[in-house]
Design goal:
The structure is a homodimer of 151-residue chains.
Chain A (H helix, E strand, L loop, with lengths): L4 E3 L2 H10 L4 E8 L2 E8 L1 E2 L5 E6 L3 H8 L2 E6 L13 E11 L5 H7 L12 E14 L5 E4 L6
Parallel strand pairs in A: 1-9
Antiparallel strand pairs in A: 2-3, 2-6, 4-5, 5-8, 6-7, 7-8, 8-9
Chain lengths: 151, 151
């Protein structure tokens, strides 16, 4: 049988980096109820590490404080065709809460509308430091990427 | 402070049922590496229970066989506006693998393109039986729903 997951090549790295420019993502986390899922704001810190801005009231923020391993998916199905053929990047990651002032101005450059709530005291930045990545480009087209491939 | 999650009302139930008509979803699962996330095909069985058709080769299929608790998110960000203001439904669910012949014809009515691969021997149906649901309609608009609210 054909190996369904290939090693990263330049085309895969370029597509992954393009998906990392998206401003929102899906987050999988774990809490006492089991796996949970949320839509999150998404961006990169100044060093290119995935990051999100969360309300401390959100279930996923509470969960990430207690259990740092998580997963992130980037890539929206387009309006046409089979949604399973549209590319998406899946990261296994570890959450790290970050001191807010260090990221505030950088985040607002990419997410100007966040000015409406970024200064609420419960909002916090969380780095989602990649451990591994899988890029899926449609049926039978998948690549495994290392954290360095994403930079 | 205002309670951020309201009890379900008719408008919330109607929006949730509309999102359940979507043909794809995001799935959060758990395996030995921690939480994982995938895009999945999505539909309802004849009784209105969420279901997916998976390749047994997919990481999430392997994971769901070993660990049935999972979570599903439905609802795509539209092209305009803040993606966090677009409605999405999040289900906590339990995965149940289903005998294939019982669902094949029903699934193909809603997913005719699945005819290309539905008969591959590794493909299987998995019911994603809801345990609880959260409907998010944008900042500060969330409703808690019970499984019966989804039918």
């Amino acid at each position: 049988m054909k190996q369904p997951v290939a090693e990263a090549d330049d085309a895969a790295r370029a597509l992954a980096r393009q998906l990392l420019q998206l401003k929102h993502a899906s987050l999988a986390y774990l809490d006492d109820e089991g796996p949970g899922i949320s839509r999150i704001a998404f961006g990169l810190d100044a060093a290119g590490c995935p990051m999100t801005l969360v309300s401390g009231l959100a279930a996923h923020a509470v969960a990430l404080r207690a259990h740092a391993p998580c997963a992130v998916m980037l890539g929206d199905p387009g309006g046409k065709g089979d949604p399973l053929t549209h590319p998406r990047l899946m990261l296994r990651a570890v959450a790290e809460f970050v001191e807010k002032d260090s990221q505030r101005d950088h985040w607002l450059k990419g997410h100007p509308k966040a000015a409406l709530y970024i200064d609420f005291t419960d909002f916090a930045f969380v780095r989602l430091r990649p451990v591994s990545a899988l890029l899926n480009g449609g049926f039978g087209k998948a690549w495994r990427l290392a954290p360095d491939d994403l930079l």
